[in-house]
Design brief:
By secondary structure, the protein is an alpha+beta fold. It contains six helices and 16 strands. It folds into two domains: 136 residues, D-amino Acid Aminotransferase, Chain A, domain 1 (2-Layer Sandwich), CATH 3.30.470; 122 residues, Nucleic acid-binding proteins (OB fold (Dihydrolipoamide Acetyltransferase, E2P), Beta Barrel). The two termini are 31 Å apart.
Length: 281
């Protein structure tokens, strides 16, 4: 039994617990699924990344394998079969399956699907995948991932680019002690809005709570991020997805947020503390 990524990189050495479970349960099958690590009642992407670095952390961050689909069973290639047939095969194969293995739920009811999409945001579920019942296994051409988004406020603590016309905003939220913590950044701001946002920002004084250079983030940075600090007094409303990670144990958004508007009527003190277990980078 072996595990491999979509890019065909071997993951077998890093997840001996999952490999053992799969080997005990299955013979002559090829499955499509996802490795996850849970902590504090939600998916923990940062812990999963640690597992990809070393198998020695398996005991402190046990992984699970969530099964989506089946490509082969008993020597039969099932990729050309419609999804409804593959799903029936999966249900027979996985009847009575126990942790750390699990079959991902499936529904043809739109209301139930929407409930899955919006009802598990606190658990870090990013979205659902839509497949046609009559289509073969062609993930890149026929499947659609529908992400779950929510609205949230944050404080602007810095910018990328000039303060007068920022390219992106570096965002913070207060923690339980009232200290402003970096939680993420925005996607690039549309050019026609940059100057307007810049009029609301002021260069930071010497007492700014953040360092002059930020650690590399999970947004494609390979080196420390240089940015301009601003007075943390402007609150903005954002559209964010449910993907949360952790930096030094603190929650951060794993993907950039989309800026919706400036909340001029809100003061930074109006934002509630960011619960450490409510939210990943």
């Amino acid at each position: 039994m072996r595990l491999q990524s979509r890019q065909l990189h071997s993951l077998t050495p890093f997840f001996p617990d999952v490999v053992d479970a799969l080997g005990t349960w299955f013979r002559n099958v090829v499955l499509d699924g996802e490795l996850v690590v849970c902590g504090d009642g939600r998916l923990d992407f940062t812990a999963l990344q640690r597992r990809l670095a070393s198998s020695r952390v398996a005991a402190e961050a046990p992984a699970s394998f969530l099964v989506f689909d089946v490509l082969e069973a008993g020597g039969t290639d099932l990729r050309a079969y419609p999804y409804k047939v593959r799903r029936a095969v999966l249900q027979r194969l996985l009847d009575g399956l126990a942790p750390p293995l699990a079959l991902v739920p499936m529904t043809t009811d739109a209301t139930a699907a929407r409930g899955c999409l919006t009802g598990h945001l606190d658990a870090g579920i990013e979205g659902v995948v839509a497949k046609r019942l009559n289509q073969p296994y062609r993930p890149r051409s026929t499947w659609r991932k529908v992400r779950a988004y929510t609205s949230m406020e944050a404080i602007v603590g810095g910018v990328l680019g000039p303060i007068s016309a920022p390219v992106a905003l570096v965002l913070g939220r207060p923690d339980q002690r009232g200290e402003l913590r970096v939680v993420g950044r925005t996607t690039p701001i549309p050019r026609h809005l940059r100057a307007e946002i810049g009029t609301q920002l002021r260069p930071a004084c010497a007492a700014h709570p953040w360092p002059a250079v930020l650690r590399p983030a999970r947004y494609g940075d390979s080196a420390p991020v240089e940015y301009a600090r601003v007075e943390p007094r402007v609150v903005v409303e954002l559209v964010v997805d449910a993907a949360i990670g952790r930096v030094q144990g603190r929650p951060v958004w794993r993907h950039p947020a989309n800026l919706r508007r400036i909340r001029a009527e809100l003061h930074p003190m109006d934002l509630s503390p960011l619960a450490s277990d409510a939210w990943s980078e």
